[in-house]
Amino acid sequence: LQLYPNPTNDYVTVDFFELPQNSQVKVFNAQGQLLFDKHIFTVLATRKLIFSTLSWPNGTYQLVWQQDNRMTTRSFQVIR
To answer: Checking DSSP bridges between strand 59-67 and strand 34-40, what pairing results, if any?
Structure first.
């Protein structure tokens, strides 16, 4: 799992190195608030997911990807 650009100011691209079928992507802010929640039920043709951070303030965020019994986390920053 790779996130870029990091830091970002507008959008984040999540690049999955394996098929993200039947999985969930969540993003939390530093206070633990859920800001983004996406269920992926089918195979993404490009193995990429792009989401906007335009309305989010500067800070550090935690992305959590859950698939089956596995969980992968990555941190990224929003800086304007």
So the answer is: unpaired
